[in-house]
Amino acid sequence: MKILPLKKQVVFFAFTLFFIITTRVMAQIGDSSIIVKDVWVRPSQVENSAAYMTIENTGSVLDQLISVQTNACEWVELHRIEKVRSIFRMRPVESIDIPSETVTILRPAGMHLMLMKLKNPLKVGEKVILHLNFKKAGAMTVEAEVRHTHNKEYQRTLPQEKESRQPEKNETLQDIDETQAPPVSKG
Question: Domain 34-148 sits in which CATH superfamily?
Answer without folding.
Answer: PCu(A)C copper chaperone (2.60.40.1890)
